[in-house]
Amino acid sequence: MAPGAEGTRRATSSPPRSCPRGLALRVAAFTSTAAIGMSLLVPVASAQPTPTEPAPSAEDIEHSERQVRERAAEVGRTKAKLAQADGELDRLAVAAAAAVERYNGQRLELQRSLQAHRDAQARLSDADRRLEEARAGLASMAAQLYRNNTGYDQISSALVGDGGPQGFMDRAAMAEVLVKRRTVMVDRVEASKNVADVFRRQAQRALDRHKEAMRRAEEARRLAEDAVSRQQESVDRIEAEKRRLERRLGKAEARTARLKRARERALQSAKAHQAGAAFTGSGRPAADGPITSAAPGAIAVRAALKWLGTPYSWGGGTIAGPSRGIAHGAGIRGFDCSGLAMYAWHKAGVQLDHWTGTQWTSGPRVPLDALRPGDLVFFAKDTSDPDTIHHVGIYIGKGQMVEAPYTGGRVRIASIHRGDLIGATRPSG
After folding, report:
1. Of 3, 159, 323, 329, which alpha carbon lies 20 to 30 A from 345's?
2. What Rg do the C-alpha atoms of the chain give, in angstroms?
3. Residues 127 and 220 placed together within one structural domain of the fold
4. Contact 71, 248 (CB under 8 A)
């Protein structure tokens, strides 16, 4: 029995003796009415407890939003720096590729010069060999002529040699012909040697030039590749800084969202307490009360916002939280859009498939001007054809949603107002 009812019984059974009977009845009636009113107000009070800490003020939220804007501006500036650094990296990469190709060309020319130098050396060696052979042949012939009495003692050879003077003359004439032929051969070999020597000097000069060109090309290639390496390090540093700032931005956005939700809950709680005095005679509120933080949609929103900044992973996400995905997401632990929606609504007690197709049909359609936190908002390539739905977000209020956006992105808060918005669903299990 309620305490108020128990007080009523005492009041009606034991009125003060000094009170007139009419006064006692009026006191009993007043006490009974008050007890009924208290019994009706108890559930409302228990459903909406008074906050134990001050609600965030509008100034707190404005400060937090200003911080979000500042950090978003930092991210924007860093993205601009990254784009500039990427452009410089592309330019240096092109220059390095050109330097490498010049190096490859010089290497080919050097190989050809080395071959030309080897060929010239071979020609010179061949000319030297033939010259030595000709000289050796000439010396041998001179010795033979001497042995045949046509050598140094020509008078003796003419008088007593074979055939007498006529034989001597014949042998001398033949020797002269042979000597001239050998002399021509020696001259020809000498000329060949001179030409080969010219070729050798030319080949050596060409080889020296190409060696120097090769050295310069090698140095240019090394410097170009070093420049690319340094620029890549710069790009990596800026990319790391961008990720750090994006994490800061995500935290600032999450804090702003928490402050807004805390303020909204505090305002709703205050309105709920004020509504306690507006009951009709039937004991029901005169109008629908505000959505409480225990509503399934609110639970789903809180569950999703917990993972702000988590990487997008194609096929990622289970009812237990982020997971490694498939294909492009195989090495990334995170959520894709429908995986995040499935996880969040599981926390609210509603089972969804990991697919936007069945999530679209998981509950009644909701007009866009009647959205409530937790409603699923869908996006399609053709907004007249649900079969082209490609993305889902979780509405959090004020035209915003929490979403796992795309490969390379992270779970974030974004506007629902896009050209490909097709509609919304309120999951009902």
Report:
1. 329
2. 52
3. yes
4. yes
422, 383 contact by CB (below 8 A): yes
Residues 126, 306: Cα–Cα separation, whole Å: 87
DSSP labels, 125-160: HHHHHHHHHHHHHHHHHHHHHHHTT-SS-HHHHHHH
Q: Which residues is 392 bridged to in the sheet?
A: 378
| CB atoms closer than 10 angstroms to residue 376 | 29
136 and 216 share one domain: yes
CB count in 10 Å sphere of residue 25: 13
Count of the separate structural domains present in the chain: 3
User: Does a structural domain hold residue 267?
Assistant: no
d(CA 277, CA 301) in angstroms, rounded, equals 31
Write the DSSP symbol of residue 384: T
93-137: per-residue pLDDT in tens?
888 778 777 778 887 888 887 888 788 788 778 877 877 877 777
Please name the residues in contact with 269: beta carbons below 8 A apart, sequence gap of 6 or more.
Answer: 48, 49, 50, 51
For the full predicted model, state whether its pTM sits above 0.70.
no
Give the domain CATH number at 64.
1.10.287.2610
Measure the CA–CA gap between 291 and 268, rounded to whole angstroms.
8
* Beta-strand pair 421-425/376-380: antiparallel
Reference 280, options 40, 45, 44, 42; nearest CA is 40
CA distance 2 to 279: 19
Same domain? For 95 and 26 the reply is no
Residue 78 belongs to some domain of the structure = yes
Residues 256-291 as b or e (16 or more Cβ within 10 Å = b): bbebbbbbbbbebbeebeebbeeeeeeeeeeeeeeb
Place of tokens 């090698």: 218
289-347: pLDDT as tens digits = 334 456 999 999 999 999 999 999 999 999 999 999 998 889 999 999 999 999 999 99
